[in-house]
Design goal:
binds adenine; 45% helix
């Protein structure tokens, strides 16, 4: 068993962090208890490229409890929590993850995971799946399937299907309602603001806060910024989403206009170059830029670097002085701000996401003879099991239908 981590002496602290996460992830722990008894993943090799956080460690322990052998690397150069990586390594998990890796090391670590010959892959952003398909196709026949955590990864998977390139079944964990509606909306909403606050320590009230992209993540961030008394502007290319943002009470306009008005900018679109040099030149002196999308290309950082001088001001905050004398501040090197500058989504939210991941692995093993090289959603009953487990973890009781109500819902004769 090998590992590549930053510092093993951080392991004790990492274990305490994982313990704290576990105290808020009781839904996932219920699945762990069942997995311990039923061993649904017995002897299955799982290779993961996920953010190496205290919450992900709880998932790793759950999969191991279910009988799996797990090897893990990160899915973003700036999101690994080094103490957690050390704790996992000390427990004997094969882990290759360090905060602040270069692109070269990032791919070396992905290759280390591929060397373990995973039968199930778990990805956040699709780098592991794409690397296997591009450079290690010989491994594909022994792969049962994979699970993908995030919107960006799902978009890449659909592009693979369109190109006829996807060669093993994938579960779109992101598309479960208990993932998409909770993690993306509630999780990203809070954690991206958390990242902005930890990195900059600014007051949000009274600021003009521009959110680019009004998907579930953008909606969450806009709502939280509004709750902190910011003046929120939304930029969006999709007509329906722009309409939703308008009726949610936000000003909607193109970036060209928003650039002149914003104090804080948060991109969360999944596309590239949302904020470009022409926008940056038009910005107010002191504007703060952050990204909550999976990859660091939503803000054109190379464009920014070409026209400015850079200075680090404080952890996770760089100052760029433009040729016109104005200063722009970039948080977390334009990497996803919630994980680069804070700790990602709270454990309670990740409990739901990772219940979906655990059940996706079980689903892949149970259905391995039936599944084709397509992108699958988890069945509704699995999604509803996650909701039930989370409700029971929080001791929230939902109501139940009476017999008369159940009958009414399945009949068509009764009207006015
Ligand atoms: N994605 C967003 N927040 C996360 C977290 N806390 N752990 C793992 N993946 C995440």
């Amino acid at each position: 068993m090998t590992h590549t981590i930053t510092d093993m002496s951080l392991a004790e602290q990492g274990k305490k962090q994982i313990e704290w996460a576990e105290s808020q992830m009781s839904g996932l722990l219920k699945i762990r208890d069942r997995f311990k008894k039923e061993q649904p993943l017995k002897d299955i090799r799982i290779g993961m490229a996920l953010h190496v956080t205290k919450e992900t460690a709880v998932l790793v322990r759950t999969l191991i409890a279910g009988g799996a052998q797990v090897a893990i690397t990160g899915c973003n150069p700036l999101s690994t929590q080094d103490d957690v990586a050390a704790a996992l390594a000390q427990d004997g998990v094969e882990v290759h993850a360090k905060r602040g890796v270069s692109t070269e090391e990032y791919y070396q670590f992905i290759h280390k995971i591929i060397e373990t010959k995973p039968q199930i892959t778990i990805d956040d952003g699709c780098d592991l799946v794409s690397e296997i398909h591009l450079n290690f196709p010989d491994l594909i026949p022994s792969i049962i399937g994979g699970a993908e955590e995030t919107t960006t990864g799902i978009i890449r998977l659909h592009a693979m299907v369109k190109d006829n390139a996807l060669k093993y079944p994938m579960v779109a964990v992101n598309d479960s309602k208990t993932k998409h509606l909770m993690d993306n909306f509630i999780g990203t909403g809070q954690s991206s603001i958390d990242g902005i606050l930890r990195a900059s320590s600014i007051l949000i009230a009274g600021k003009t806060f521009v959110v680019s992209g009004y998907g579930q993540c953008g909606k969450g961030a806009a709502a939280r910024a509004e709750g902190l008394l910011a003046n929120v502007i939304v930029t969006e290319v999709d007509a329906f989403r722009a309409l939703q943002a308008h009726y949610d009470g936000f000003r909607v306009m193109p970036m060209e206009q928003a650039a002149k008005l914003g104090d804080v900018f948060l991109t969360v679109t999944g596309d590239k170059h949302i904020i470009r040099p022409e926008h940056m030149k038009a910005m107010k002196d002191g504007a703060i830029l952050a990204n909550a999308g999976h990859f660091n290309l939503e803000i054109d950082i190379k464009g920014l670097e070409k026209m400015s001088k850079k200075r680090n001001i404080r952890p996770n905050m760089d100052e760029y002085t433009l040729e016109n004398g104005k200063k722009i501040f970039l948080l977390g090197e334009g990497r996803l701000v919630n994980l680069a500058c804070a700790e990602g989504h709270p454990s309670e939210v990740m409990s739901m996401s990772f219940m979906n991941q655990s059940l996706a692995c079980e689903y892949l093993v149970k259905n391995k003879d039936k599944l084709k090289a397509q992108v699958y959603k988890l069945p509704d009953d699995v999604d509803n099991t996650v909701a039930e487990l989370q409700l029971s973890a929080m001791n929230v009781k939902k109501d139940t239908l009476t017999e008369e109500q159940t009958k009414y819902l399945s009949s068509w004769q009764e009207g006015t």
